[in-house]
Amino acid sequence: MAAFTGLVLGLLAIGPGLAPGFVLSFDMVFVPDPAFSKMTFGLTGTVPRHVPSDAFVTALATVVPAHAVQKLVLLSIFVMACASAASLVPSERLAPRLAAGVLYAWNPFVAERLLLGHWAFLLGYAALPWVVGAASRVAEPGGGKRLVRALLPAAIGGFAAIMISALTALVVAAAGRERGRALGRTVAALVVLSLPWLVTGWLRPSGIPGDAAGVAAFAARADTPFGALGSLLLLGGAWNRETVPAGYGAPITAFAWLLVVVAAVFAYGRWCRTAWTRGVALAAGIGFVLAASGAVVPGLLRWAIGLWTGFAMLRDGQQYVAPLAVLVAVGSGVLVERFTRRRADTAGVALAIFAILAPVVLLPSLAWGAAGRLKAVDYPAEWAAARKIIAADGVPGDVLVLPWATYRSYSWNGGRTSLDALPRYLGRRVIISDAVMIGSLTIRAEDPRARRLDEVVRSGGPLTAGLRAAGIRYVALDAETSAANPVRGRLAGAEPVLDRPDLVLYRIEGPAKAEDGGAPVWSAVLAWSIVISVILWSFFVPASTLTTYFPRSIRRRRTS
Description:
This protein has helices spanning about 1-15, 55-60, 65-90, 95-105, 110-115, 120-125, 130-135, 145-150, 150-155, 160-175, 180-205, 215-220, 225-235, 250-270, 275-295, 300-305, 320-340, 345-360, 365-370, 380-390, 420-425, 450-460, 465-470, 485-490, 520-540, and strands at about 20-25, 375, 400, 405-410, 420, 430, 435-440, 440-445, 470-475, 495-500, 505. The chain is an alpha+beta fold.
């Protein structure tokens, strides 16, 4: 029933995004007929944030149309979130479990991350309650296999999804019995499942990326009257103001959300008694501190990044309130269980119904594609024509995309902001400027090729000779394509092979040979071989234990 409820919530939330076509929103970019490439596996020298999620999508798209893959992935987030949170509530009754499941699947955190396009991260978030259950029993016989299976959605999601899962799983394991064995198995599972992006990221020539200038840009922001900390407590506070759901944060609804969260936290602390209760509470507390660090002590976080760039993973702090969302959801279910068990009358039924419906009532703007912001669109015919031209060309060389920026507001996408889609759309190595501009702040590019080409592109002089020397075969303009664009005048000597309103494509003869200098292919082969082997191993369990694939955290203990 919880999974079906999650499906209904997903259908309600995605709405127009379920129509034929693709939903493009900030970092969420799916393309038709994706192909495996060096980029898919993080071998181009770029930061492998898309590993292994792109490989997962590409593999599915070989048997299912890519637009259907996107819809299935987005719906699965809501199904898993509702089902996993429901499984964690220490009650056999349906109402408390549904109350937890609906709140976990429908809240400001999910809404803001969905609008940010962080579908891969949300896969890990959706399975986090299962990770809690598996981590609390990881020291038991077969516990390591259960944890690997519970971590699979996060492993598919990649770096960010694994980070919140690691925070939660490690703390829950450390708070349980047989701490040494539990931590050892948990660390082993997390490291192995991280190998596809961990190895290629570590071996990239530029090392671990991290720009302390991004601390202020990515810090949690107030989207309620309660400031940044209060917004985080209410599971909001994303750094990007454009992703705040319409109408969210108004004083009345913000106060209502505050009552829901405070009541749930109180119920969790007062009545939830399970093997993982203390671990989840500790993980939620640690996560909240990490989430708030960029907003409260930005200087400390900048100092830490200066010591080791790996601490840059804490810049986007709001994602670390995910364990708090687990606590709040379970607390909501515990509260409903406690009240309805004592009041099995009309009042009890009314409270149960209110608790189940409250998240949707208090955040109605997540419905129907976040009030129409998640709409499916078709890629222009010009894009398919460009891909055909490039695919038919036997001369090696890369593609440079202009304008020299990371994000686009395509007219055919309704002017909504999204990542430039050409790197995934075209079959060749595509170079864009991956420097991120937030207001007046620019966070430097992480792609070594983009950094080397930055001076050439920004010089204002002729482009063709410099791009030829850098190994560029094609230049694509997927925005600002009019003939009046001065960039087109800088491409003298390049042959225009496609000139349409939505895409202009130039070809440069005789490009030099250029190497990305990414991680060696053998490293990805080794990493993927180990991961696939461990995943297969995790499924070789006696038939009697197969029901724990989506593990319930406990053998139900009723609340007292």
